[in-house]
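RECORD TYPE: inverse folding
INPUT: structure tokens
STRUCTURE:
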């Protein structure tokens, strides 16, 4: 919505304020909904979120460990076969 008499910059600023107002209204609604929920339900939701976050963290650690282990095995194999290159050593380090 373009208001007459405003510069382009002023219009863009007003548009950003409109977006901010919409975001704050959504946030207010969400906070109101949470405030009306029983505390135990909110705590249960947070516990579920904490478990999911812990699971994701564990999976990430396992993935990183697997990648490091594979690189070490490739390094050892290339070292044993004489196919050792500078780039292989840098990947492992």
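DESIGNED SEQUENCE:
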């Amino acid at each position: 919505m373009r208001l007459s008499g405003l510069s382009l910059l002023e219009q863009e600023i007003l548009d950003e304020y409109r977006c901010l107002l919409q975001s704050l209204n959504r946030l207010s609604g969400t906070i109101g909904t949470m405030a009306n929920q029983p505390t135990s339900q909110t705590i249960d939701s947070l516990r579920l979120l904490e478990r999911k976050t812990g699971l994701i963290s564990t999976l990430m650690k396992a993935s990183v460990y697997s990648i490091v282990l594979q690189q070490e095995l490739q390094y050892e194999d290339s070292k044993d076969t004489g196919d050792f290159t500078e780039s292989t050593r840098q990947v492992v380090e």
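NOTES: Residues 35 and 42 are 9 Å apart (CA to CA).
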